[in-house]
């Protein structure tokens, strides 16, 4: 790991951070020995004999052999008891780090010593050993920690490898995955709980499903799961469910305007008259294309007033860089060709099943997609009205040569969109640059190819927007120019393949569409060719993604009992209080800004476990939320589309209304957490409040080191490079003084430089640098672990008194060291090179190794805890650290 030289960027910190990092009970005195007082009295012959007998008896214990041998020597030589005690000790700071010291006797219970003692009598050499928890749970916990370590590594040089090397060796990446770490392992564990809920008879008994609403929810959940697990039916359906969608896209795109050669009876030219209808159809099913639209608060005026945000779309490849790499472009083009050919063949069969109504002449297709809103669309007619002459309006056969040309043009079109899009570091890290409110008429003027009133109507919102917020002021006009230069054939191919890339994974494994998309995924993620994971896990994952608030109700009942919510919330509140207390000691923050920051911390809404909207504890609330989801098809894809349409409908119902303060953006079983700047809230689902991140019975140093660092990370996001720009009400404004903002910017520049010097292998013999600008917000969030450490220290004495700081067996580490080990263990992750490259190009989070080593590099308390030398890689001079808090 290459560490940065940031000497020129960071001035010397003059305000020390948490100076006292000694063990809290290091100053406790040993109890006075009554035996010592006996030795100080005149010794009679009888007393001497009794002492010798007692000494011989005690020598049978191996623990006190050295101690009593030295004492007997002193007694035999007749020296008095006023001489100083000299102890030569071998002290183990860690299991791999030793040093020999000669010191005055101040040994603590966390040292292992070999001593030659000159004393007046057999007295204790330090505080009595603290009791160790020997329950089965403690032994298992201790074992899991020991097995995760690689003690051949020096923690002061490679802490990530030291804390996780054992885990990494014993948890290889499954062949069907590109990454596997503790987050993924816990998500897999949570899915096993969900799978049991979806399949066990215990969850359909009258005693469990106490209401008709529970019965409705379980019917939807199990119906969706069953349609996914029925692989025979999926194979029988083939690509038809996907072709039904792509066929409708083509019909909507072209409307009814065609030019027909009567002699050849073939379509010669098609005009794009239904682009708005086609893109609206995609978006109402959760499929991205051309642009994205979302509903969020107006952070410049009223953060709780839900407004339309217009932004750039996702790309077919993960990022702009991939469109410059020939090998990926060639593979992507091949995949697009395969999709175009197979879908055109399937659509010919679908088109042949259309019939004309005898009176109106309206073309009717037996639509199986029972989703909202109903199609044809718009409801006032136009797209599917009029006469049709036989098969003249059917898709033309897509031969390989034509597919090759269309696929090539699609990639050119996507590359133009990529070049017109904002760089991700601006999109993710600059909320001021991406906040550009304009009247809706301005958007229509910049992008006249889209009829926005018609587009809005597809989502049936209760309120139509007057204002839209652009993340890029240039993207709409750039997209318009691109569309003007794009042929109808290319645009048709783009929309069809966008749907295919998104939906093909829900088809049977034998379909050509599934195989084509899978080949691209294998290359991008480094998956083993042809390796397919457990079907039950795949189906459980998709049920959770589609109906997550419903599955969350039963997940919480199984995994989040007792006082888990209370203890998790207490840790969060402790960290908030510690953060507020630290603000007065932050050297770069003046008093005015510190006061405002404390007010923002007080105003943060803390959500733990599960949401109240829909209400996890009220099945009627959840059934109402999913009332528009129709899980009644044997085709898994159709059921997924129904769920997607429901989510889009509910999202657009927020438009023009005040934010519901009880809503969540994650499901209860999700292994993650988040900070939402406009809502000024931090959210922790029950899914992450599980081992190895949380347990309500863990000792404090582990609870604060593991879950505490997650909580501190989300809290710190409120004051990171982007979060600090939102005030206590979630509004974008300058609420720090200029001097404080400048001080923060210096440290932000420092951390950008630090992480920009970290690299990963590109798989071709070269290196790719981490994007320090893109990851700056998350890297600053990771610095919050120091607040978790301080919060643990602040409650240590009370925790020790109530027994929550108990020791674990077999661990030769201090509590301080175990705090940092607990922090690092959460980030253990094996990752394929291809997946690592994709993430470093697109993910605002740094690679996990640097989330550990890069973080402790900036924490002096870590180096103190592990007795790191001044020359150690992770113990740099103060002026080289990026110190925020």
Automatic annotation (TrEMBL):
<keyword id="KW-0812">Transmembrane</keyword>
<keyword id="KW-0479">Metal-binding</keyword>
<keyword id="KW-0378">Hydrolase</keyword>
<dbReference type="InterPro" id="IPR000718">
    <property type="entry name" value="Peptidase_M13"/>
</dbReference>
<keyword id="KW-0472">Membrane</keyword>
<feature type="transmembrane region" description="Helical">
    <location>
        <begin position="49"/>
        <end position="69"/>
    </location>
</feature>
<protein>
    <submittedName>
        <fullName>Metalloprotease</fullName>
    </submittedName>
</protein>
<dbReference type="Pfam" id="PF01431">
    <property type="entry name" value="Peptidase_M13"/>
</dbReference>
<feature type="compositionally biased region" description="Low complexity">
    <location>
        <begin position="96"/>
        <end position="120"/>
    </location>
</feature>
<feature type="region of interest" description="Disordered">
    <location>
        <begin position="96"/>
        <end position="130"/>
    </location>
</feature>
<keyword id="KW-1133">Transmembrane helix</keyword>
<dbReference type="Pfam" id="PF05649">
    <property type="entry name" value="Peptidase_M13_N"/>
</dbReference>
<feature type="domain" description="Peptidase M13 N-terminal">
    <location>
        <begin position="155"/>
        <end position="611"/>
    </location>
</feature>
<dbReference type="InterPro" id="IPR008753">
    <property type="entry name" value="Peptidase_M13_N"/>
</dbReference>
<keyword id="KW-0645">Protease</keyword>
<dbReference type="GO" id="GO:0008237">
    <property type="term" value="F:metallopeptidase activity"/>
</dbReference>
<keyword id="KW-0482">Metalloprotease</keyword>
<dbReference type="InterPro" id="IPR042089">
    <property type="entry name" value="Peptidase_M13_dom_2"/>
</dbReference>
<feature type="domain" description="Peptidase M13 C-terminal">
    <location>
        <begin position="672"/>
        <end position="882"/>
    </location>
</feature>
<dbReference type="InterPro" id="IPR018497">
    <property type="entry name" value="Peptidase_M13_C"/>
</dbReference>
<dbReference type="InterPro" id="IPR024079">
    <property type="entry name" value="MetalloPept_cat_dom_sf"/>
</dbReference>
<feature type="region of interest" description="Disordered">
    <location>
        <begin position="14"/>
        <end position="33"/>
    </location>
</feature>
<feature type="region of interest" description="Disordered">
    <location>
        <begin position="380"/>
        <end position="403"/>
    </location>
</feature>
<feature type="compositionally biased region" description="Acidic residues">
    <location>
        <begin position="382"/>
        <end position="398"/>
    </location>
</feature>
<feature type="compositionally biased region" description="Pro residues">
    <location>
        <begin position="121"/>
        <end position="130"/>
    </location>
</feature>
<comment type="similarity">
    <text>Belongs to the peptidase M13 family.</text>
</comment>
<keyword id="KW-0862">Zinc</keyword>
